[in-house]
Design goal:
By secondary structure, the chain is of the alpha+beta class. It folds into three domains: 35 residues, no CATH class; 32 residues, no CATH class; 56 residues, no CATH class. It has four helices and six strands. A three-stranded antiparallel β-sheet has the order 1-2-3, with no helix packed on it. It has a three-stranded antiparallel β-sheet with strand order 4-5-6.
Length: 163
C-alpha cells in the first residue's frame, strides 16, 4: 500500500462502495456513515469473487483448470474416472507501477525493483514460444526506457467495420 501512496494514490480500506459515477465514489464506512470521494479515475480492487470453490481470481487458477480439464478428457476417453481438481497456490504477484511490483511466494516477499524484475521473469516464463517472449520483452523494454505507456492505453477512434 505504501508503494501506491508514494505514487499519489489515495487508498481507502474498510469501506463498502455504494455508488460510482463519472465524478467520484460514494462509500459507507464501518460506523455506517456515508462519504463521497471526488475522482475522475477510480480503481476498484475489492469486492470481486471468483468461483464458489474459494479459489483466487487469478490467471494461475485458469491455467491449472485448463490442464485439469485436458487430463479429465484424457482420463474419460481411457475409461477412467476423473480426479478432483486441486489448486496449488504458487504465490501472488502484482505490478504496481513501472519498476515496482509486489511478490509473495509462500511468505517470501519482495517489492520495488527486485519484485518488478521477478514479476517480469515469471511472466516471460509462462508465455508460450520465443516469438511471444521476444515481443513482450521488447515492448516492456521500450516502455521501461521511454515515457510512453501504450500497452495500457486505448487511443484514437476505432474504424467502423461493416459486415
Amino acid at each position: 500500500m505504501a508503494e501506491l501512496e508514494k505514487l499519489g494514490v489515495e487508498v481507502h480500506t474498510g469501506t463498502i462502495v455504494t455508488g460510482v459515477d463519472a465524478d467520484g465514489v460514494d462509500v459507507k464506512g464501518a460506523a455506517g456513515t456515508t462519504e463521497r470521494f471526488r475522482s475522475k479515475t477510480t480503481i476498484w480492487a475489492a469486492g470481486v469473487s471468483a468461483s464458489p470453490d474459494n479459489l483466487p481470481g487469478v490467471a494461475e487458477v485458469a491455467l491449472q483448470s485448463g490442464i485439469h480439464a485436458a487430463r479429465t478428457i484424457r482420463r474419460r476417453l481411457a475409461g477412467k474416472e476423473p480426479e478432483p481438481f486441486k489448486y496449488h497456490d504458487l504465490g501472488s504477484m502484482a505490478a504496481v507501477s513501472r519498476r515496482c511490483a509486489i511478490v509473495n511466494i509462500h511468505g517470501f516477499r519482495l517489492s520495488g525493483l527486485l519484485g518488478w524484475m521477478t514479476w517480469l521473469f515469471v511472466h516471460l516464463a509462462f508465455l508460450t514460444g520465443f516469438k511471444s517472449r521476444f515481443k513482450a520483452l521488447a515492448g516492456w523494454t521500450l516502455s521501461f526506457l521511454g515515457a510512453s505507456r501504450t500497452e495500457r492505453a486505448l487511443t484514437g477512434i476505432p474504424e467502423r467495420i461493416d459486415r
